[in-house]
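Lab meeting minutes (informal)
Scribe: AK
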Amino acid sequence: MVRTVIVLVGLLLASAPGSAHELGKTQAIATLRDGSFEVDISVDPDALLTTLEASAGIVRTVRYGRTYRDRRITELADIFLAGTHVRFDGQPVTPAFEYRPAAPFDDLAQTPSVIRLRGPVPEGARTFSFNYGLALGTYALNIRIGEGAVRTQWIVGAASSEPVPLGAPAPPPGKLEVGRQYFVLGFTHILPNGFDHVLFVIGIFLLTAQWRSILAQVSTFTIAHTITLALTMYGLVSLPANVVEPMIALSIAYVAIENVFVSDVKPWRLALVFSFGLLHGMGFAGVLREVGLPRPSFVTALITFNLGVEAGQLTVIAIAAAASAFWQRDRESYRRLVVQPASVVIALVGLFWTVQRALG
């Protein structure tokens, strides 16, 4: 059993992302007016340099200052442009490349840098499309044609956007469409992209097989993260990501460690889940702050995002319940063979992430 746990830990640490949210800092804003285009891509400069060097076949730079990093990104502009395409009527154009690094203070706060691609719109062009070949997760592409409404497409990785007509401006999306988009965003932020949140929810599930207790904890978690998500998005509460992310990882480890030493739900469990939910809400807010919320449908987007997150969490619990149904027939064996080994794995992953995020 110990050997199995060690193998599982190794596999999880090898495959688990070091950063909590694949939606992270990447965002693209395309503006087309007066015969020209600009595409501003928000990027994590440290992650971008690593990706560019890997794409160029260059040995990764381990230690560097921000001045060196920013210069190297500019020097590797051709690598960036080779994998990023602006197309009109399906035909690529060659944009000018401009790197805009974050100011030193913002850099310490892990504020994204911006890469601007710009150039003329080909005469007679009818459609615009874009793909960012270096993207690893889902990101928002916000497109504005002339003075028309901003249209948002959610792009997965290096996939290309849907072609956008350059003629009459499209009407703004209705609340139903906004709700659908943000529900899907909330759900996919749990499954398959929110591995840290998945582990936290599984940690909640493992301690008890009683559905009333499980749902009470999940509901408490949801209420808590909804509160801080709303407060953070309205600018009333704010903590930097380099503080929130290690604390989220530590909350995962704590819940799992408690599962090892406690055999049933204690009165303080709900209070702990609530406090940890407040932290996770700030993590969710980091996602929405980067991709943006539509002003006319701010409340709709906020509510449906939370509903998507809740649906994702309940799906995780349903899968975990189905996977462990056979073992739950014998409570003692279930605790010895499932709960404790799985909790040890989750605790080790959570502690690993805590250190990684604190130092990274």
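Next up, CB showed the second protein from the same session:
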Amino acid sequence: MSWQTIDGIRVYFRLSGDPGGTPLVLLHGLQGDSSHFETLAPTLARHYRVLVFDQRGSGWSDKPAGDYTTDLLADDTVALMDRLALERADVFGVSMGGMIAQELALRHPDRIHALILGCTSARGADGTSVNRGTEESAYDLVPISAEERARRLAATGLSAAFLEAHPEVVETLIEARRRRPLDIDALTRRHQAVQQHDTLARLDRIRAPTLVVTGLEDMIVPPASSRLLAERIPGARLETLDGAGHLFWMEQPARTARLAREFIAAHRPGH
């Protein structure tokens, strides 16, 4: 297991792929952790130097008290990149990770090549960017068992067709949650960071080439939120995935990896 200390907290991370490859940072969602990329990361590691890590308040990383914000978590990401001598990287954030990626692109534009925003929103608390009913079910801020939390995430985050075809994914999510139990206080602080997130008035300042991806059956963050991001970020491209829910990269890892590779390749410096 690999750890770095940033801003006084221990952060669990994994680097995989060619040591000389182009860095690609993957940013997980609200109650996720680096295990949510266990299918996608190895596929991308054939082409990139892939960094996944448990963010502040998540997984095996420390869960300090205090206010959490998406800009703080963006700064954490850059601090970890500094520790690992990653000068610039492509960045792929999903859900809350996409919010963090937006702030990273705004606060540290010189650290990003290409930006990929998955199933995410410019705002966390405007009543339209997030489906409150399914969000509350998936991210309940009370202690519940690993089994119940994983089953709720599967029911709200995955498309019905995928869940019917792959019922074993529920056990995979349960086991991941057992290995990395949620801390309700930390989850609450992370949820507050989502609620306070608002980049809508600043999206036109993002200069990184941007791909926005959404599953058309996303029940947590409506596809309209992705369309708004694509409209407001200069030159952004929108990709919609038929038959995919909120956790589209778990449902369609090969297609997700292909989209990322093609977009990154098309926007390499000097291309």
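CB comment: The mean pLDDT is 93.
No objections, moving on.
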